[in-house]
Structure to design on (415 residues):
């Protein structure tokens, strides 16, 4: 009669153990980026790329021989305050990693700082931040964090690629700096003046303006200043509607400019805006562009992505980000956050754009960058139109991650 009493504690332990084992079958990742407001289309694009990769990883068995990844979605509303509220909600729901980047460097920086504080106060419950698109070098420089990993080339790397291209482009003579008034807009302008000036000392910088981010409806007044300066080219970090509206205003004014940008061509609507303006050349830099020759792995991924989502594939680095995390979890043999972070350090990964490596010194991913220009289809350099237009992408130059790698001021405190 006493046996049930003796067995009861063991049964309870068994139930607890089973519950713990079940809990370990899911690894939660929180997506925090704009899903409403003027840059909602950017956030949705990034979300779809992230979802696709996670679903594919899960379809192939997940990580650690069966643990599935679960994506939680939060709207940053392009606000540091809203993002930190989203972070707390993600923590409450059991997230172990944050995927972000489309909210801008000031928001991502605030998230990283909040994660630093949380991790210090909550050992055993640490989080990682995987940043695929906010490219302020400070995030892997003076403000680097052991818990933050950058999966896109940073501003200095991208501007170095553009400066190398401009060095071989003699018709660029007078440059105006027109950028969004936030941390990264200022960084893009600063690196433009510094690195392009170094590559081409003969270039004249004829003016500089910052404008509110996501709030300008008509860029005509800004372009009037550009025209008055005599500029033939504009270095602009604008993205989303700020890039599309700038192109529209220039087209309406009949102003034929060259634009040098970090990622505008990977945002929906930009190619359409260039085609409608009919004037101007937008040159930008990314790890790949649609229609790029000799990229069979990306082509196959893009085809699969289109078939599953019904949308165009644009950003390998975003789709790659959860895959890097999964590779690190498998390498660590654990979902323990400090172990995963250490496994990410110096991780080499055979990506669809070629071999990439996460530099341990500052957690900056070294990946190739392609300088390319949105241009009319000509059957030779541009073979495929995009966004229902006869405009596509022309490859101008390709640089390896090692060629563009910069020194770092990172002095990373480690746990």
């Amino acid at each position: 009669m006493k046996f049930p009493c003796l067995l009861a504690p063991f049964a309870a332990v068994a139930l607890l153990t089973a519950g713990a084992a079940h809990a370990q079958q899911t690894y939660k990742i929180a997506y925090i980026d704009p899903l409403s407001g003027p840059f909602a289309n950017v956030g949705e694009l990034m979300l779809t790329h992230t979802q696709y990769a996670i679903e594919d990883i899960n379809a192939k068995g997940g990580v650690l021989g069966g643990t599935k990844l679960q994506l939680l979605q939060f709207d940053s509303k392009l606000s540091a305050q809203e993002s930190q509220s989203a972070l707390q909600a993600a923590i409450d729901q059991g997230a172990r990693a944050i995927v972000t980047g489309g909210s801008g460097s000031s928001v991502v920086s605030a998230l990283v700082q909040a994660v630093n504080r949380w991790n210090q106060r909550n050992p055993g419950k640490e989080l990682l931040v995987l940043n695929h698109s906010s490219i302020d070098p400070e995030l892997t420089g003076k403000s680097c964090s052991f818990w933050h990993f950058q999966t896109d080339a940073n501003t200095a790397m991208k501007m170095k690629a553009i400066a190398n291209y401009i060095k071989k482009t003699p018709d660029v003579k007078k440059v105006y700096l027109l950028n969004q008034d936030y941390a990264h807009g200022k960084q893009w302008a600063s690196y433009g003046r510094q690195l392009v000036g170094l590559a081409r000392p003969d270039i004249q910088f004829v003016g500089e303006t910052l404008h509110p981010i996501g709030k300008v409806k008509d860029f005509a007044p800004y372009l009037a200043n550009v025209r008055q300066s005599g500029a033939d080219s504009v270095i602009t970090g604008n993205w989303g509607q700020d890039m599309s509206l700038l192109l529209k205003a220039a087209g309406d004014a009949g102003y034929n400019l060259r634009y040098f940008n970090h990622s505008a061509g990977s945002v929906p609507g930009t190619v359409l805006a260039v085609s409608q303006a009919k004037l101007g050349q937008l040159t930008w830099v990314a790890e790949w562009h649609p229609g790029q020759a000799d990229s069979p792995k990306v082509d196959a991924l893009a085809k699969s992505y289109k078939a599953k989502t019904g949308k165009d594939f644009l950003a390998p680095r975003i789709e790659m980000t959860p895959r890097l995390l999964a590779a690190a979890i498998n390498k660590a043999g654990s979902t323990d956050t400090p172990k995963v972070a250490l496994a990410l350090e110096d991780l080499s990964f055979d990506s669809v754009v070629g071999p990439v490596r996460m530099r341990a010194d500052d957690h900056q991913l070294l990946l190739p960058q392609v300088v390319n220009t949105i241009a009319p289809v000509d059957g030779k350099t541009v073979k495929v139109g995009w966004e229902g237009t006869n405009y596509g992408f022309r490859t101008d130059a390709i640089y390896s991650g090692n060629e563009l790698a910069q020194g770092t001021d990172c002095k990373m405190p480690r746990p």
User: Anything to note?
Assistant: The chain has two domains: 9-152+297-367, 156-286+368-403. Confidence is low (pLDDT under 50) at residues 1-23. Residues 181 and 210 are 5 Å apart (CA to CA). The domain at 9-152+297-367 is CATH 3.40.50.2300 (Rossmann fold).
